[in-house]
Structure formats: structure tokens, C-alpha cells
Amino acid sequence: MFKNVKAENARIFGSDDDSVAIGDSLEALLPEGLEPLSDDFTEVGWLSDNGIGFAPEDSVDKHHGHQGGRVIRTKMTTSETSFTFQALESKLSHVGLAMSIKNSETTVEGDATIHTMGGRKVERRPFVVDTYDEDKHYRWIIPIGEIGERNEFALSNAEITGWEFTVEIIGDFYLVTNDPAMAETGSLGEGDSGSEPGV
């Protein structure tokens, strides 16, 4: 009994070192493993206590047989993944992603004037998400992410102004980890993947 139950494989993230880092352009040097990030990436800083949420979204057509109307095949028609985070620090890089900046000027006194666009554009950047559970390090490497639809932000005395972003992941992305449980052979997810989306 309980021979396949391993509490040590249950993960809770939210360490002091958890971070979301954004590349300055699609030409940013991506990490290959768990090494320190290049200067092409900037961490967003404080994140809200909602953490970082990954959201797979799939649409499947079900094909039924005559006998009993049972489902005998399914077909993936669309499949996409996004992730969401909320930055709690108000700084130029976050306003730029949220509002699309046309130009910014700073006076010698240190006052900044930021010209934001009334209509925003899609921002395409690479992202790296680092999370830790004690000594277990999970790194999600996203070569291309797009920020399209923006979320509202509140200027209030009842809460911290948060800059929330939903990033649509374009193409493949990668998880690199030192967690031994993720290196086991014969794990779930290695079976027949069926047809590709739209095929």
C-alpha cells in the first residue's frame, strides 16, 4: 500500500528567487540550461501572490459511432498555451508593455514624460520563468511570447497597482529542471500523441 505515493514529489513554489524575466528583443541570448541569464534579460521584480499561471487551451472534435452513439475518435482542432503574471512594481518597462510607448523623455530634474499610444501593438519577446521549491529549480524557456490583449490596472489606495500580462506562447517552449522525478523513464505523456493540431 502507498508504494507509488511520494510526497517528496509534490511541489510548492514561491521562493525568494522565483522570477519572470523578459528579453529585450527576439535576438536575446536564450539560456541552454539553469545557468544565470544573460544581460539581454531583465527580471520584472515583485510578482503578485497569485503566482504564475500556465493555461493550456484545447478544442477537440468528437466523432461518434452509430452503435449507441459512443465516441470512437477525437480530433484536436486547435491547441494553444498562454501564461499570466502580475508585476507589482511600477516602472517604465511595465508601462511600456501595458501601454505601448511612442517615446519617453527625462528632464535633468528627473521628471519623466511618457508618450503612450492610444492604440496598442503586439509585443513579441522571449521570456524565462524561474521557480524554486527548496533546491528544486524549474525553468520555463519561452523563445517567443506575444502580449496582445491588455488587462486593466487600478490606481487605488486599497491595493497595489498591478500590471497583469497574458502572454501567448508562439511555437514550442521548454522546461529545464534539476528535479530527479522529471528524469524518470516511461513517464506519462510519452505515448501516442495522435495527430497534430489541424491535421
Number of strands: 10
- How far apart the termini lie comes to 43 Å
Major beta-sheet overview: 8 strands, antiparallel
The SS-based structural class is mainly beta
Q: Shape, please?
A: globular
- Give unreliable regions as ranges: 194-199
Q: Gyration radius, to the nearest Å?
A: 21 Å
Fraction of residues in helix:
under 10%
Strand/helix succession = EEEEHEEEEEE
Number of helices: 1
DSSP strand content: 35-45%
Mean pLDDT across every amino acid position: 89
Can you put this structure into words, describing what you see?
The chain has 199 residues and is mostly beta strands. It is 4% helix and 41% strand. It is built from 1 helix and 10 strands. Strands 1, 2, 3, 4, 7, 8, 9 and 10 form an 8-stranded antiparallel β-sheet that branches. The C terminus is likely disordered.
Quickly describe the structure.
By secondary structure, the chain is mainly beta. It has one helix at residues 92-99, and strands spanning 19-23, 41-43, 53-64, 71-87, 101-106, 112-116, 123-133, 136-147, 163-169, 174-177.
Question: What does the secondary structure layout of this molecule look like, with pairings?
Answer:
Layout: E1 19-23, E2 41-43, E3 53-64, E4 71-87, H1 92-99, E5 101-106, E6 112-116, E7 123-133, E8 136-147, E9 163-169, E10 174-177
Antiparallel strand pairs: 1-2, 1-7, 3-4, 4-9, 5-6, 7-8, 8-9, 8-10
Key traits:
two-stranded antiparallel sheet, 1 helix, about 40% strand
